[in-house]
Amino acid sequence: MDSKIINQYLLLNQKYFPEGKLPFLKDKLSKLNENQFSVLYSIQLKDPVILLIISVFLGNFGIDRFMLNDTASGILKLLTCGGFGLWTIIDWFLIVEKTKEYNLNKIMAII
Hints:
By secondary structure, the chain is an all-alpha fold. 73% of the residues lie in helices and 0% in strands.
């Protein structure tokens, strides 16, 4: 795959992935053919900032966890009202990285 196209893709989508994993992702993307690479454009990635906002306002109900397909934690968070508020506050600091890891795992499943 052309490195110019890969660099453009990573430049446009770098906020969706962990910063330390970008070189690893670049290496994996360079091994794709054009058809596989075109599939990446159809994948909808979760925006970490949007999930942070959802976590702040709806974190007690576990909506942030449900959006990351972490159903068990979402149900537990819902039943305990966000771990009595403590779990919700902790998630405010962790949700951005969890979202970026979720996006990376989603891409890696396609690759």
